[in-house]
Structures are given as structure tokens and as C-alpha cells.
Design brief:
Blueprint (H helix, E strand, L loop, with lengths): L1 E5 L3 H12 L3 E5 L5 E3 L2 E3 L1 H10 L17 H8 L10 H15 L4 H11 L6 E3 L6 E6 L2 E4 H7 L6 E7 L8 H9 L2 E4 L8 H6 L3 H6 L2 E5 L2 E2 L2 E2 L4 H7 L6 H7 L6 E5 L11 E5 L6 H14 L1
Parallel strand pairs: 1-2, 1-9, 2-5, 9-10, 10-13, 13-14
Antiparallel strand pairs: 3-4, 6-7, 6-8, 11-12
Helix pairs in contact: 1-2, 1-12, 4-5
The structure holds guanosine-5'-diphosphate.
The site of guanosine-5'-diphosphate (GDP) has 21 residues, from helix 1.
């Protein structure tokens, strides 16, 4: 069995391919970007994983449901309330169901299990923890939630610090502990190392487990740029080089193999094996090819 650590764009793309050729895996997902909007809890990374594994994701944007409509969002706007985030009607149904389950006393893990079963997904999808953790970005415009920084302010402010608010109280769920015990290998997909994988490995217990596993990570950085998103800004702010080597540095304590893109220069890393392939996933075939490459390594 393979454990996959995921954020909300790069790794869901990989999972979209992996599920075509292999089914003995489970996913542990970042929840530090979760936010309550219009009365409902949105778990952007969890939902992208659910939508990717159930073939419902919008593969243009890599968030939300394909061919969704935005009637409720637009109606709210015309009534004078801007949600700050464009939420699709079908996507909103996911948020409503999850929030109702939470309001009825289910844990986040239980609510996600019910949801992913409704989407017909066989594999387990776990939140990194049940407790609420929020990524806050300290910027030249003040402290803001990750979603305000990325969606509201389009990632423009200067970043000086990243805080995972609530992380001290976060615990690895027992269900994750049990399954991690049973697997030998962990794949860290091409996700933002700071704000997607960073919160997971900051929850007490994950690093200790990862040190005992064979860990293969795919770099989300090609050359000195991420394929998408704010990873470069965050890596720079924390003093990491924006390069595949910088990504490996974030994972230094537990990484065994770093997969970099074939467009990258050859180089060596003293604490990990480096291997190259085409890591750009535009279509299903690309994701299947990368998943196959990872299975060969494992
Ligand atoms: P977020 O929660 O939306 O930030 O999603 P992730 O952290 O899972 O994914 C964002 C990261 O995925 C970015 O740093 C991108 O560079 C990377 N990424 C997205 N698509 C690809 C791809 O096709 N190949 C590679 N190598 N990285 C990708």
C-alpha cells in the first residue's frame, strides 16, 4: 500500500492518473487552507482530491466541479453579498453536506469518509488532522488568511512569514496512524512544499513516521519556477532556494528520492537520490505516465 500526501492541484492531477493503474493507496490531505464561507466549511484541497478521484474535477482550473454553474454565488452578489470566492452550485452542495455532518457532531474525518463514499471513491481520503488549522500569511499589508492572500489579493502582497495557526493542538488521526503503519512507501506529489505539504509535516508525528518509510517526492518546481501557484514566493520568504533542490531541502529529514523534471539540469543532492522524467501533467495520459514512473521507483 502507498500513502500519498496531497495539496489541491499538483497531487490531485497525479492521483487522477494513479487511480487508472493502481488502487492500493490512501491519501492524506492538507486542511490548513480550509475556511468557512457563507455558513459552510470549504476544504479546497480535500475537495480537489475527491473531485479528481471521482472524475468530476474541472480539468481547466483544477478546482471545483466540471461544467458547474454559479447561480447562487451571482444571486448573492446581486443581493449585496460578495462571498469573496467563486463557489459553484454543485461544489456548494459538497460544502453544505460536509458542514451539516460537522454540525451534527461528526469529525472532519468521518464527514469526509461519508462524502468520498457518496462520490464512489474506494480509497481512503483523510484530513491531516481533525482539529482546525489555518495558514496565515504575514505580509506588508498585514496578517491574512491564505485564501485572502491567494484568492482575495491574488498573491500580490510581499510575504514575510507563514503561520500554521492551531498546529500545536493538531494530532495525526488514529486511522491515519494505523494505515501508515501498514505501508512501506510514501509519495509526496508535486504540491506546494510550504503551504500544502508544510502543514501536514508540521502536525506532530508525521515526520517521525516518514523517517521510517521510503519517501519519493515529485518536485512542483521546474527550473526556478513553480508550474502554478505561490510556491516560489513562500519558499523565498522562508529562505529556501526556489529550485528542485530547495524542495528537497524542505523534505531533508525524510526524503529518499526526488523526482525532477526532464527539462531541469542534472544535479546531485547529498541526502537523496535524484531521478528525472517528464513531470508536466496536462492530460490524463501525462498523469498516468508519471504515476507509472513512480510505481516503477517504488
Ligand atoms: P494548492 O493547494 O492548490 O496550492 O495545490 P498543490 O500544493 O497540490 O499544488 C500546487 C503545486 O503544484 C504548485 O507548486 C505547482 O508548481 C505544482 N504543479 C501543478 N501542476 C503540476 C504539474 O503538472 N507538474 C508538476 N511537476 N508540478 C505541478
Amino acid at each position: 500500500m502507498i500513502a500519498v500526501l496531497s495539496g489541491g492541484t499538483g497531487t490531485p492531477k497525479l492521483l487522477w492518473g494513479l487511480k487508472e493503474i493502481y488502487d492500493d493507496f490512501f491519501v492524506v490531505v492538507n486542511t490548513a487552507e480550509d475556511v468557512w464561507v457563507s455558513g459552510n466549511k470549504i476544504c479546497p484541497d480535500i475537495d480537489s482530491v475527491i473531485y479528481a478521484l471521482s472524475e468530476s474535477i474541472d480539468t481547466e482550473t483544477w478546482w471545483g466541479i466540471a461544467d458547474d454553474t454559479f447561480t447562487t454565488h451571482e444571486r448573492l452578489k446581486s443581493l449585496g453579498f460578495d462571498e469573496g470566492m467563486r463557489i459553484g452550485d454543485l461544489d456548494r452542495a459538497t460544502h453544505i453536506l460536509r458542514s451539516e455532518l460537522l454540525r451534527k457532531g461528526k469529525s472532519l474525518l468521518q464527514a469526509i469518509r461519508i462524502l468520498k463514499n457518496s462520490f464512489g471513491i474506494k480509497q481512503e481520503i483523510f484530513p491531516m488532522c481533525n482539529e482546525e488549522v489555518s495558514t496565515l500569511i504575514e505580509t506588508n499589508e498585514g496578517l491574512m488568511h491564505f485564501q485572502n492572500f491567494w484568492v482575495g489579493r491574488k498573491g500580490e502582497p510581499e510575504v514575510s512569514k507563514i503561520i500554521f495557526n492551531g498546529i500545536e493542538k493538531a494530532r495525526m488521526p488514529e486511522e491515519v496512524k494505523d494505515l501508515l503503519k501498514q505501508c512501506d512507501s510514501v509519495v509526496i506529489g508535486p504540491s506546494n512544499p510550504i503551504t500544502s505539504i508544510g502543514p501536514i509535516i508540521s502536525v506532530k508525528g508525521y515526520v517521525e513516521v516518514l523517517k521510517r518509510k521510503r519517501v519519493v517526492a515529485v518536485s512542483p518546481i521546474i527550473g526556478n519556477k513553480p508550474v502554478s501557484g505561490p510556491a516560489a514566493k513562500f519558499m523565498r520568504a522562508l529562505g529556501y532556494e526556489v529550485s528542485p533542490a530547495g524542495v528537497a531541502e524542505v523534505y531533508r529529514d525524510f526524503i529518499d528520492v526526488l523526482v525532477i523534471d526532464e527539462r531541469d539540469a542534472d544535479y546531485e543532492i547529498e541526502f537523496a537520490e535524484v531521478t528525472k522524467t517528464d513531470t508536466i501533467m496536462k492530460e490524463k495520459g501525462d498523469a498516468v505516465r508519471l504515476a507509472n514512473f513512480l510505481l516503477d521507483i517504488l
